[in-house]
Amino acid sequence: MNILFVCLGNICRSPSAEGVMRQRLEQAGLAAQVALDSAGTAAWHQGKPVDPRTRLAAQRRGYDLSLLRGRQVVVEDFHRFELILAMDANNLRDLQAMCPAHAPAEVDLYLRRYGLQPHEVPDPYYGGEEGFEQVLDLLEEAADRLLADIRGRL
Ligand code: 4NP
């Protein structure tokens, strides 16, 4: 199974989603069966490491995001990934606009799909430190539900 997490810049929310989920899969012994990646709808941070504020907040919870690098979503992603999970409604709209007809990917809003409130992961980029903690709180909750979903599909 292949899952892609998508936000705007691919330096805060979607790499965090990827890092949290990778740890959940490793703990569940399912890392070899599910491939994860993340990407941004914008190209601004292509090739750049994860935002240092995000990296630090993640590191404090035991997630290592140091090897991840930003990349932009490409049309081929809709053929490579079965599940593409957007962090907010703008990301979802942008993904839907570029999704080719008949592409196999299921594109959805991550938190809403798993019955969580709020439905969107708020963009922490221009805010304070608490925003980075909130992102991780939401993504940890979502990861547990995504893991349950994956177990049902494998
Ligand atoms: P992300 O956060 O979409 O969670 O990676 C952002 C990163 C960068 C910018 C905006 C949001 N930016 O404007 O550069």
TrEMBL record:
<dbReference type="InterPro" id="IPR023485">
    <property type="entry name" value="Ptyr_pPase"/>
</dbReference>
<dbReference type="InterPro" id="IPR052995">
    <property type="entry name" value="LMW-PTP"/>
</dbReference>
<comment type="similarity">
    <text>Belongs to the low molecular weight phosphotyrosine protein phosphatase family.</text>
</comment>
<feature type="active site" description="Nucleophile">
    <location>
        <position position="13"/>
    </location>
</feature>
<keyword id="KW-0904">Protein phosphatase</keyword>
<feature type="domain" description="Phosphotyrosine protein phosphatase I">
    <location>
        <begin position="1"/>
        <end position="149"/>
    </location>
</feature>
<dbReference type="GO" id="GO:0004725">
    <property type="term" value="F:protein tyrosine phosphatase activity"/>
</dbReference>
<dbReference type="Pfam" id="PF01451">
    <property type="entry name" value="LMWPc"/>
</dbReference>
<feature type="active site" description="Proton donor">
    <location>
        <position position="123"/>
    </location>
</feature>
<feature type="active site" description="Nucleophile">
    <location>
        <position position="7"/>
    </location>
</feature>
<keyword id="KW-0378">Hydrolase</keyword>
<dbReference type="InterPro" id="IPR017867">
    <property type="entry name" value="Tyr_phospatase_low_mol_wt"/>
</dbReference>
<protein>
    <submittedName>
        <fullName>Protein-tyrosine-phosphatase</fullName>
    </submittedName>
</protein>
<dbReference type="InterPro" id="IPR036196">
    <property type="entry name" value="Ptyr_pPase_sf"/>
</dbReference>
